[in-house]
Amino acid sequence: MAELLDGKALSKSIRAEVKKEVASLVEKTNKPPHLVVVLVGEDPASQSYVRAKNRACERAGIKSTIINKDESTPEAELIDLIRTLNADHDVHGILVQLPLPKHMDANKVIDTIEQNKDVDGFHPLNIAALQIGTPGVLPATPKGIMTMLESTGQSLEGKKAIVVGRSNIVGKPVLQLLLRKNATVTIAHSRTQNLADEVKAADIVVAAVGRAHMIKGDMIKPGAIVIDVGVNRVDDKLVGDVDFEAAKANASYITPVPGGVGPMTIASLLQNTVECYKILET
Ligand code: NDP
Predict the structure, then answer these.
(1) What digits encode the pLDDT tens for the residues 143-172?
(2) Same domain assignment for residues 92 and 160
(3) pLDDT tens digits, one per residue of 167-193
(4) Strand partners, 237
(5) Into how many domains does the chain fold?
(6) Distance of CA 210 from the midpoint of ligand 1 (Å)
(7) pLDDT for res 128
(8) pLDDT class for 272, splitting at 50, 70, 90?
(9) Residues 48, 19 contacting (CB under 8 angstroms)
(10) Is residue 126 part of a domain?
(11) Ligand 1: which of 122, 147, 229, 268 to mutate, most ligand atoms within 8 Å of CB?
């Protein structure tokens, strides 16, 4: 029976560490780290993510400002706002909540964020740093996933890992980070053939698709570590991409949904904000 990788508990201890570090930094600089979150439109899910980020910042002693812009805001106005935030010495992190309205080019908007204030790690220079292995801000969800894997104490070296999903925000960065740990990584996507066989061969499974319970219990190799990134609403309940109840019989470690990767994403965002602050202020 698998051990539960409790993202809530791990995130709580990381947030406590961040809080301590912030307090000692502020003692020296007299200036709190400041994250600005820009939310365009009124998507309820985005609003709730932004509120959660705001709350977590405040609890950790990080100043947090939410800027709400109307759904119809022209792209040029948003870009101007980001340039102003880039130039503001009291702002250390800028996060533009995605998705943006259809009339905006998200890549262009993200490209405008100053690299050292890009707490989401989505700027092309941070993505390049991830690829090359040079210092840069890591995207929050993949960073949280790696922290969870590390918390197991298991070496990833030489292990077979599969990442199901190849998005720029989860799948591809996780692939890079697993490679850094010397895992042998397969990345699967919607055109992958015989997904079940690919998953069955893996010692580490990271599922980031967005399809409820698509990874079945019998696909999990005995002893595998299973990280479920997926968040799917089924009958008003949140479930992951992995059939948790069936998979936990085979896995050695498994993340629940909710309470797994989600809280780790927020903890990583706080760590990134402090990292950016240190680059800019110390
Ligand atoms: P995307 O929709 O951007 O990517 C989904 C990926 O899954 C694509 O690469 C797609 O392949 C692949 N895919 C689709 N169908 C299949 C299939 N049948 N077999 C194998 N692969 C398939 O999603 P995201 O990466 O943004 O998010 C994935 C999930 O993670 C979502 O549920 C999202 O809500 C959740 N999430 C959770 C976070 C958290 O903090 N907990 C943070 C971010 C995301 P292809 O490229 O071929 O289309």
Answers:
(1) 999 999 999 999 999 999 999 999 999 999
(2) no
(3) 999 999 999 999 999 999 999 999 999
(4) 234
(5) 2
(6) 5
(7) 97
(8) very high
(9) no
(10) no
(11) 229
Q: What global pTM score does this model have? A: 0.97
pLDDT band at 282 (very low <50, low <70, confident <90, very high): confident
Sequence-distant (6+) residues with CB within 8 A of 40 are: 69, 70, 71, 73, 78, 96, 97, 100, 101, 104
Amino acid found at 26? V
How many residues in the chain?
Answer: 282
2 is a domain residue: no
What is each CA distance from 254 to 87, 145, 165, 188, in whole angstroms? 43, 12, 18, 19
pLDDT above 70 covers what percent of the chain? 100
Residue of minimum CA distance from atom 35 in ligand 1: 230
Average pLDDT over residues 65-79: 98
- Same domain? For 158 and 111 the reply is no
Q: Average pLDDT, stretch 53-58?
A: 97
CATH number of the domain bearing residue 102: 3.40.50.10860
Ligand 1: residue whose CA is nearest its atom 42 = 141
Told to judge if 97 belongs to the known catalytic residues of this protein, a careful annotator would answer yes
- Of 118, 120, 203, 241, which residue is the catalytic one? 120
Mean pLDDT of 132-137: 96
Domain-embedded: residue 1: no
Give me the domain span that covers residue 85. 30-115
| CB within 8 Å of 25: residues ≥ 6 apart | 33, 274, 277, 278, 281, 282
